[in-house]
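COMPLEX REQUEST
Ligand: 6-O-phosphono-beta-D-fructofuranose
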Amino acid sequence: MFPHANTDRLNQDHTHAMVVLMAANMKRLAVLTSGGDAPGMNAAIRAVVHAGMARGFAIHGIDHGFTGLINGNFRALDVSDVDGIIQHAGTVLGTTRCEALRTESGCAAAIRTLKENEISTLIVVGGNGSQTGAWELARRGVSVIGIASTIDNDLFGTDISIGATTAIDVVLEAIGRLRATAGSMRRAFLLEVMGRHCGYIALMAGIVGGAEAIVAPEINWEPARIMQTLFAAHTRGKSHAIVVVAEGASHNAQALMNYFHDHADALQFELRATTLGHVQRGAAPGVFDRMLGIRLGVAAIEAAAEQHHGVLMGWRDGKPASTPLADVANHARPADGSLIDLAKVFAM
Ligand code: F6P
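STATUS: Structure written out below.
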């Protein structure tokens, strides 16, 4: 039995009209990634798209972070745009460090493009500087929700940020490789790691990587103290020694090299330094960062649906938790005392 041609046409027109009407009524939500890329950002973008569409939002991606927002680089996203991205490092939306958002005219331009594109909520995936930018928009009336993402893990309001654990795994792999060459040639290595002003990566990687010493902003050990530790390691017969140095420590790898160069006899080991740099950001996200990206992405959509704006979505006590962006923008994550204690236990 074939449907009547005219009825069929009427039904099609009706369905088309409904789709157009629904699209017009759908709330439009935009997502951008900002600051240093972090493994797991793609998992968060994918979660925002899937969960957002399931909640009835029309999702738009903004290319190149806040710079793209100011320039109006919006594009509609659907699930096919985020197929296959979960396992990749970096961010498919691209990212920038945007100085312009620190200015009044930059903020005004960002607010203008959001209005032009009829965006009701903006989701900002990023770290400290990015969430400060998110707060600058929020306090000017934009509905913003942040998602905690930085390898540095220095954001206030979250126990852990997207990307940190994968970056630490990269450092662990490097420690293993350096130990192999150090042990073969009876050398000590300084391994400088990222983290900006925060020593979380250095502390975590140093502790679980079995480093002889850790130099971080949270542990203000003088070079002489590090030298004692290396000397003790040599005296008890170790064929190698690894010192993990945070880039933000008062004595970074270069400063320590200079000091040890002047005290070579007391050190005993021949010394080399390696700066790991951006390879820490480029690994495929591990299981924790993928799940964190998913959980925070979905939680951000739930917050948007409940109109719970002006917050950072982070991870506390094993679940998503929100913190006002006003607090995030004005605070650094407090140093973890238990990590500092552990670091001291193992530096003999
Ligand atoms: O914030 C992430 C981070 O990788 C820091 O650890 C590092 O200090 C900084 O970014 C490097 O910035 P850029 O990629 O702009 O050189």
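REMARKS: Residues 102 and 133 are 7 Å apart (CA to CA). Residues 36, 97, 127, 150-152, 194-196, 247, 281 surround 6-O-phosphono-beta-D-fructofuranose (CB under 6 Å).
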